[in-house]
Amino acid sequence: MQPTPDITGLLEAALQTARNTGLTAKAVRKEPKANGGRAAALIRIGRGTQQKEYAVEVKRGLRPATLGTALHQIERFGQPGLLVADYITPPMAGRLREHGVPFLDAAGNAYLEQPGIFVWVVGNRPAAPAVPPALGRAFQPTGLQVVFALLCNPAAVNQPYRELGAMAGVAHGTVGWVMPELQREGFIAGLEGGRGMRRLFKRDRLAAQWTDAYARLLRPRMLLGAYYVTNDATWRDWPIRQHGALWGGEAAGALLTDYLRPGELTLYADKVPAVLAARNKFLANPEPGHTLRVEVRRRFWQFTVPDVRTDVTPPLLVYADLLATGEARCMDTARMVYDTHVHRLVAQD
Hints:
The protein is α+β, with helices and mostly antiparallel strands. The protein is built from eleven helices and 15 strands.
């Protein structure tokens, strides 16, 4: 699959930003296979004989909630990576520099640091407001629910549409327009001699696109309520399964890795668990001693994932929620969840 014209144009604009600083910059290869996934391009930047190659991740409409996804994707390339965007704000530029991630944008901002070269340009604004990429229906909210079900259960690609719809919590008609789109994008294809059998392909890229779109489009719609509990709440002892709830976000990350101390608790349920809320004195507003935030989000899937704790959401969702916080320690935990649980689902081609 060739890069779409808008990505090609964005990449060329970013390369021109590098050239405007007096460097040479050119695309060497389109969509090279990097160690941990497929980059948008391989580019070469430098001056004279001092040249360096970068695997490129392209993001349009970059936001704080989607920055973590981009950073992890670049990290997984296993070779020097560079972020290309239509516009990178000064705060995001600062965060990228803190992480040591070079970037170029179409507005003229840049950060490059390599032998004999240092470029730091921020504050240029785009001629028009940066907008998120135009996405097909598979990456709209209900379509994202179908993609989530497929990524968590790759064999479900061969399920009848009605059964897949039940797993995803959507009408089977929604599945009917998501599947052909995923086929057109090369994420689903039939197996040769497979008598109609299908398979998911490029799962790593599909998971990256899902994580990005989830943070922007689906996650904000799932919030049922936000509350506050005592700062020393013994949340690990809450009988959440008895109340139809699962841990997500930071709490789930803590349970899966034993690394993170949650600064916020996230529960997924069909509705706010009233009895659990009453027993643990959920307050609508923070008060002295009650400043630990609890978010209750709507469960949008109807399946379980084998070999994972029964009190947490599917690991792909834990990973996505942690990245969406933008917090460094949550992003570290997200990498652990990815390496331990998500990678085995998406690593196959």
